[in-house]
Each structure stands twice: as structure tokens, then as C-alpha cells.
Design brief:
mainly beta; Pectate Lyase C-like; 44-stranded parallel β-sheet; elongated
Length: 448
């Protein structure tokens, strides 16, 4: 192993060890070993895999810390893989010299306003395992092109930018698992201007990634624990699973726990996104889908919003099954709102408001506005004010087998179900309703 102290690094937190470490990278054996200590650097340490061959970085089980005292990333990993994940696209030189750069058991801290943790470009099968990064801008910044990334067992904590930032990136296959991604000012996991396939986010704690909680002294910017923006030209994000995470926050202006934005007018629609088995709560809006196609949202506990638990805009083919929507404190809200959406299914969900007075935002539990072909079945709505289900300017909305009740000592609901505005083909059948159905003559509603 290339022990950096054998190349002149002091590891005392005061000496500038940049030149010594770069010496070890250039002339060592490809396994960069940092014994216990604090290693201060002032410029990025570049590892060009074509020159170094297969490379690893070890921080002696987390006892070594790199202190980045200059602008830019502490480490820049540079590869040349230009193919896909298909073995046939992999050049022999890339496989022999560049595959699987691995970073394990090391801490990075920033002491410069423009310091980053890692910048990663052109790599094949890069691994980050047991890495802690704090007080930088972006902890792990993936740019241009990478393939088969693993980020596991990491702590990306209290940074001024994003925990994991996929920025102008072409990437197929990334696994983010068993990590703590929290208190990052501009989001936990953020994707912009990128083409991504096979994104797996599993078993993480992703929380408090917003300015008010992490950097209250700085100006607020809209953010999310998981932010996927595929609205730019050429951008698309498909084949995504967000499963078994805790995704929590504190409410911030225009803040979201999960925000997914797609273009709804593409000839080849986006989609293939599953959000399953998560705890999601305490933001202005918990989950916000805009311009989405083909999203499955199932088995989640979604709680406490200041606007909506779930907001769906200009989307289609969204399936919502067996989710629990509620508020956690008296000042929070609950409810789902669909706007300008079609061909969506809501089944087996529970919507509950425990308060006596109703929500401060005045919203019904399920709101549909200018929607078409929405199927609502087997759901339980309790204590909605003004209504359990509230529809306006909707067509072909079918509500079947639902239970809607106001269980307060003094009922406050205006109606169990209300249809207003212009509509046609709307149907209510086989529901248990404690309260009336309110319908304008123009709403096109039939009851069976």
C-alpha cells in the first residue's frame, strides 16, 4: 500500500499535504492508504485512472480525515469509459486499468466555501463505501458520464450544496443504499439536466435537507430530499425505485420531500418510477409529481404537510395504492390534490384528519381539478373538511367501494363528496357515506 506518510504527508491538520499525497498518487502502487490523522490539502487531488491503473483509497476504517482548505473537490476521479453498461461496449484498456475505483472508510471535511468532496467523471463501477463528507458544498458530484456507481454505508452530512448531485450527467445504473444523507442545504439527492437509467435509492435516512434546518443564516432556496428535474432539453430519468427509506424534513418555502418533474409532451414518455414502503413527512408538500407518466406510489406512510401530502400536476398513468395519508401535529395538514391529470388510480388508501376544527388550509382530503378517467376505489376518508372527496371540472371519475365519514362529536364536513363545475361521465357506486353528496347540475354525476 502507498502509505501517504511514506511520501512526506504529515497528517497533523496544519501542514499542507497536497504535494505529498499527489506524489503518492503518481508514484505509489495504486492503493492510497491514509493512516490515522488529519490531512490538510489546498487543491484537488486528481486521480487519472488511465495513468494510475486500478485505484483504491483507504482511510484506515474512518480514522483519517482529509481537510479540503481550497476550492474544488478534495478528490477528482477521472476515467475514460464512453460506453454503456453492456460488456460489449467496454474497451479493453478501460477494463484493465480503470474499472472499479474504490473509496472506503475515509472522512472529508471542508474548510473553504467552495470546497467539494468528490467529483467523478468517466468512471466504470466506482464504489463509495463507508465515506463521511461534511462542511463542503457538494459531497459527491457526478458529472458528464459514469456507469455502475455504488454509494453505500455513507454519511453525507451538513453540506452547503447537495449530498449526491447528478449534474449534466449520462449515467446508467446507480445504487444508493444504507446511507445517511442529511442536513444538506440544497437537497439530499438532486438530478438536473441529466439522462439517468436504473436509479435505486434503498434503505437510506434522507432528512432535513433544506436551508431552514441546516443553514438558517443563509437565504432559502427551494429544495427536496430527493429532487429529480428532467425538464431540460435532452434530459430524462427512467427506471427509478425509491424504496424503504425515511424521507423527512422541516417545512420550507416551496420545499418537497420528493419532487419529480418531467416533460409531459415527449413523443417517448418518461416513467417506470416506483415509490414504495417509505416514511415521508413534514414538508410544505411531501410528494410532488409534475408532468409524470407511469409512476407507482404504494405502501407509503405520508404525513404532515403545510400544503399537500401528494400533489400531482399534468400527469397520467399514476397508480396510488395502500398509502396512508395523515397529519402528525395540529398545525400540519393532510390531503391529496390532482390537477390536469388523467388515467390515474387511487385504491386502498386511508385519508385521515384527527383534528376537531379541520385543516387550516381549508382543503378537502382528496381534491380533483380538471381531471379525466380517475378511479377511486376501496379508500377510507375520515373527517374531511369541507369534504372527503372534492371534484371540480372533472370527467369520467369513478368512486366505488369507499367509506367516507365525519366522526367528530359535532360534524364539520359540508359533504362527503362534492362535484362542481362542468363534467360528464362521473359515477359514485357502492360507497358507505356518512354525509351527503353535493353535486351541481352541470357536473355530470350519477349515483348507484
Amino acid at each position: 500500500m502507498s502509505n501517504v506518510k511514506n511520501f512526506g504527508a504529515a497528517g497533523d491538520g496544519q501542514t499542507d499535504d497536497t504535494a505529498a499525497i499527489q506524489h503518492a498518487i503518481r508514484d505509489g502502487d495504486g492503493l492510497l492508504e491514509f493512516p490515522r490523522g488529519n490531512y490538510r490539502i489546498t487543491r484537488p487531488l486528481e486521480i487519472t485512472l488511465e495513468e494510475s491503473g486500478p485505484f483504491g483509497i483507504s482511510g484506515s476504517m474512518g480514522t483519517a480525515t482529509i481537510v479540503m482548505a481550497g476550492p474544488g473537490p478534495a478528490f477528482r476521479l477521472l476515467g475514460n469509459h464512453g460506453g454503456t453498461g453492456d460488456p460489449g461496449s467496454l474497451k479493453p484498456g478501460v477494463w484493465q486499468s480503470e474499472r472499479m475505483p474504490a473509496v472506503r472508510g475515509i472522512a472529508i471535511e471542508g474548510s473553504h466555501a467552495e470546497a467539494d468532496g468528490f467529483e467523478v467523471k468517466g468512471t466504470m463501477q466506482a464504489i463509495f463505501d463507508g465515506v463521511m463528507i461534511r462542511h463542503v458544498r457538494h459531497a459527491i458530484h457526478l458529472v458528464e458520464r459514469n456507469r455502475n456507481i455504488q454509494i453505500v454505508n455513507c454519511h453525507l452530512y451538513h453540506n452547503r450544496g447537495v449530498g449526491i448531485f447528478m449534474d449534466g450527467l449520462n449515467l446508467h445504473q446507480i445504487n444508493i443504499a444504507n446511507s445517511h444523507i442529511s442536513y444538506n442545504r440544497l437537497g439530499g439527492i438532486r438530478i438536473e439536466r441529466s439522462e439517468i437509467r436504473n436509479l435505486q435509492i434503498t434503505g437510506n435516512d434522507i432528512e432535513y435537507n433544506n436551508t431552514p434546518r441546516s443553514f438558517p443564516e443563509l437565504p432559502n432556496e427551494p429544495t427536496a430530499e430527493i429532487w429529480i428535474d428532467a425538464t431540460a432539453d435532452g434530459a430524462s430519468v427512467n427506471e427509478v425505485t425509491i424504496v424503504s427509506n425515511t424521507i423527512q424534513a422541516t417545512a420550507s418555502k416551496d420545499g418537497r420531500n420528493i419532487r419529480i418533474m418531467e416533460k409531459s409532451d415527449r413523443s417517448r414518455p418518461p416513467g417506470l418510477i416506483t415509490i414504495t414502503g417509505n416514511i415521508i413527512g413534514s414538508q410544505e408538500t411531501n410528494v410532488h409529481l409534475s408532468g409524470c407518466y407511469g409512476v407507482s406510489l404504494t405502501g407509503n406512510s405520508i404525513y404532515s404537510c403545510s400544503y399537500r401530502n401528494l400533489l400531482i400536476e399534468d400527469s397520467r398513468l399514476v397508480t396510488m395504492g395502500s398509502n396512508h395519508f395523515r397529519r402528525h401535529t395540529a398545525i400540519a395538514g393532510t390531503g391529496v390534490r390532482l390537477i390536469d391529470s388523467r388515467d390515474c388510480t387511487i385504491s386502498g388508501c386511508s385519508f385521515h384528519d384527527e383534528s376537531e376544527e379541520g385543516q387550516q388550509n381549508g382543503a378537502s382530503l382528496l381534491e380533483l381539478q380538471n381531471c379525466q378517467r380517475i378511479a377511486v376505489s376501496g379508500c377510507n376518508f375520515s373527517n374531511g373538511v369541507p369534504c372527503g372527496i372534492d371534484a371540480f371540472d372533472c370527467r369520467d371519475v369513478v368512486v366505488t367501494g369507499c367509506t367516507i365519514a365525519d366522526t367528530r362529536g359535532t360534524p364539520r364536513a359540508k359533504a362527503a363528496i362534492r362535484f362542481q363545475g362542468e363534467g360528464s361521465g362521473n359515477l359514485i357506486a357502492s360507497c358507505s357515506l356518512r354525509g351527503e353528496v353535493s353535486s351541481e347540475s352541470t357536473a355530470g354525476l350519477t349515483q348507484k
